[in-house]
């Protein structure tokens, strides 16, 4: 009886232990389940650094850009952007020396697609609708082109073109090259007809990719020139021209007309008879000496002779400048005399001996 009881107890204990082990297994599994979920979450969150790269601070769109590159980056467009996102290309820049615009809506759309921003609200546009982009450039002017062609003519054909001007068919073309280039423009190919003075030239600037893609070719002719005096600024009527107001330039002879002033001394200290335009060649009728005696003015007539000086009053019959010969009338005798203006209100007369008394 006792043996059976002991045997039953042992069997019952074994069954209890087995049940306890089975009951503990689900708890162990339920304890490991959160670890598996966290691992999965960690695996899914692996690309998180790309999201973290999106800036969380204030981003402001710039209204104007001045660039030297051919690409516009997001860092150029957006102030406050840094890192790889700032160096990411967004749009192509305008051509050298040109200005273009980019609509703000296009910038926002492109920035969202590139992952630069998540939402349009992250980018402050300050109320403007477009961004103005200017591409920096060095411009080659007509004077540089002419100097290069003349140097090529001297070097290749022995032509001294200093007395000529270069008339380019259709005018000098606009030329823009990379702003960092400082080399001079030079002739690479040149043909010249000495009889007609017609020429054809190809010009380039060392290191310019722009001129390699679009070479500069011109057709033109050498034309004779003359030296002319031109005002450097607008001159008002009655204004006296000074040394700094005029410059001597060479202009094509054809079409200039006659009576051109070619010596600056003929214009300096002269008075403009009419309004003069800057850059328009002066003619002899455009200027005159400054009048210091007006018509009808009372002046002092001075008779000068060896050991003799007589002064009297007279009235001028015409206006004149220093050194001009004018006629004056003696109001007492009504006689008219010819004298030279020697100063403001002063006319000098040197009559023959024996006529002084009769002139009074």
UniProtKB/TrEMBL annotation:
Its main location: periplasm. Gene3D superfamilies: 2.30.30.760, Antifreeze-like/N-acetylneuraminic acid synthase C-terminal domain. One of its GO terms (cellular component) is periplasmic space. Residues 226-288 form the SAF domain. InterPro entries: Flagellar_FlgA, SAF, SAF_FlgA. It is found in: Periplasm. Residues 1-23 form the signal peptide. Keywords: Cell projection, Cilium, Flagellum, Periplasm, Signal. GO terms for biological process: bacterial-type flagellum assembly. It holds the Pfam family ChapFlgA. PANTHER family: FLAGELLA BASAL BODY P-RING FORMATION PROTEIN FLGA. This is Flagellar basal body P-ring formation protein FlgA. It comes from Bosea spartocytisi. The gene is flgA.
